[in-house]
Specification:
two-stranded parallel ribbon, 291 residues, 6-stranded mixed β-sheet
């Protein structure tokens, strides 16, 4: 392991703002250690707002607001309000916190980091949630030291959803062609290998969406795993306001975030520069109340 790689793995072994369980860290003590077992704990704690119907749930308006919690500490607090048992005790769907894919990602990431194991949230696109399209989706990656690689885990995909979506791969090791990080999706579309109009969510698609997810991927890789519909502190412009220099900067960000060896230090300094200057600009595709 290179010194640079050691620094990177140490960085991802500690909490960020969204993944820090704070005073609820005791709930993450003594959990199992495999990705499969931890995913099962997450699945027994959260229910995705757009998948609730699969579990026979009709969510009242006040429960839908739980998707705005957005932090591991907040999710754990709400979970205890709904059901005070240990997380290893599977809750009925009505006693799970209403969440989005973002929350499944950061809660699993928090569990790995509680065990001092390198993990990181990723913003990107799933190829398995809508035929022929790539849907805005968050996952978690953990470092497999034996295989010396980052392993992608979709903790949202329990047995109910695996059957519903016809998932034939292992959700605890999602193949690279089934999930594209924001960085890889941007690269594929900029190179003309994929159609940007196939990337997005609901009625929002295209290069603006790819730009948004690429920047969220950059921030997540710097442990700023904010809710995807909230302002991240960046300027926001439509595609007409994106300059050639901005696109060059986005290409460089994508190259760094795609995981090239030795890119960690540059990835950190690039995120700081983007936040300081507000360029390249973000594009928020929708408000939560529009979905």
């Amino acid at each position: 392991m290179s010194h640079r790689n050691a620094d990177e793995l140490a960085y991802y072994s500690s909490f960020g703002n969204a993944t820090d369980p704070q005073r609820y860290s005791f709930l993450l003590d003594g959990l199992p250690t495999t990705a499969l077992e931890l995913s099962s704990v997450v699945q027994g704690t959260l229910v995705h707002i757009l998948e609730a119907w699969r579990y026979g749930l009709q969510l009242p308006v006040e429960r839908k607001r739980e998707v705005s919690i957005g932090t591991a500490a907040g999710l754990l607090e709400r979970s205890q309000e709904l059901d005070g048992r240990p997380l290893t005790e599977v809750r009925s769907p009505s006693k799970r916190v209403v969440a989005t894919c973002h929350d499944f990602s950061i809660l699993l990431c928090a569990m790995f980091r509680q065990q001092r194991r390198p993990a990181r949230a990723r913003a990107g696109f799933a190829a398995y949630l809508s035929p022929g399209r790539y849907i805005d989706h968050w996952v978690c990656q953990y470092w497999d030291g034996g295989a010396a690689r980052w392993v992608t885990v979709d903790a949202q995909l329990d047995q109910v959803q695996r059957q519903g979506y016809g998932i034939g791969f292992d959700p605890c090791d999602v193949p690279e062609d089934r999930y594209l990080t924001g960085a890889r999706a941007w690269q594929q579309c900029r190179a003309g290998r994929m159609d940007p109009q196939l990337f997005g969510f609901s009625r929002w698609w295209g290069m603006g969406y790819l730009r948004h997810v690429l920047l969220r991927d950059l921030l997540a890789l710097n442990k700023m795993e904010g809710l995807p519909w909230e302002n991240a502190g960046l300027s926001e412009v439509d595609e007409s306001g994106v300059s050639a220099a901005d696109r060059t900067d986005l290409d460089q960000i994508a190259a760094l975030a795609a995981g090239n060896d030795g890119a960690f230090a540059a990835l950190r300094s690039t995120a700081e520069q983007v936040l300081r200057t507000g360029r390249p600009p973000d594009w928020r595709p929708w408000r939560l109340d529009q979905v």
